[in-house]
Amino acid sequence: MVQKTFNFIVSGGEATGGPPIGPALGPLGVNIMAVVNKINELTAEYKGTKVPVEVTLDTDTKEFTVKVGMLSTYALVTQALGIAKGSPTPNTDYVGDLSFDQLVDIARRKRGGLLAASLKAAVKEVLGSCLSMGVTVDGKPAKEVQALIEAGEYDDRLAEAA
To answer: Which pTM value belongs to this model?
Structure first.
């Protein structure tokens, strides 16, 4: 029972049997379309977003498991806003506006992959990404929202969300 693990970055819900999946798994005799269908099933909610996946294959039985990795903060923010990319000049041009609830939801989803000790700290980390992307929160620049969080303006909403 030899297990091999493969890591791929695929477009959510749109993986194909071509590169990089087919050439990596084909020589091992696994049913590539079964793997692709499972990947597409698990990543369908991230349609069009680059998603990391891990495929673990038992080379003897050809059985496999697929795990979906954590999306980047950038990917979650662009998906929430329905935009293709951040602003090329983030301090002057803004490309979207998140609600505070969307910001908290992204922080909650990312929390396992962040170094933040609390939801408040995780929200501030996501705000850092918003700042570099040219994204506002409730119509305010990310730095202003960070200052309001530091001042305790959002403590009640963060406590409810935790």
So the answer is: 0.78
CATH assignment, 3-68 = 3.30.1550.10
pLDDT tens-place string over residues 43-85: 998 887 889 999 999 999 999 999 999 989 999 999 999 998 9
73-161 classified as CATH 2.60.40.1120: no
In the predicted model, what is the mean pLDDT of residues 15-36? 95
33 is written with which tokens? 């379309």
- 6, 55 Cβ separation under 8 angstroms: yes
CA 77, chain centre distance (Å) = 8
**Peptide bond preceding 20 in cis form (omega within 30 of 0):** yes
132 CB burial (10 A radius; 0-12, 13-18, 19+): middle
> DSSP secondary-structure letter at 117?
S
Query: What are the sequence ranges of the domains in the chain?
Result: 3-68, 73-161
CA distance 43 to 40: 5
d(CA 68, CA 146): 31
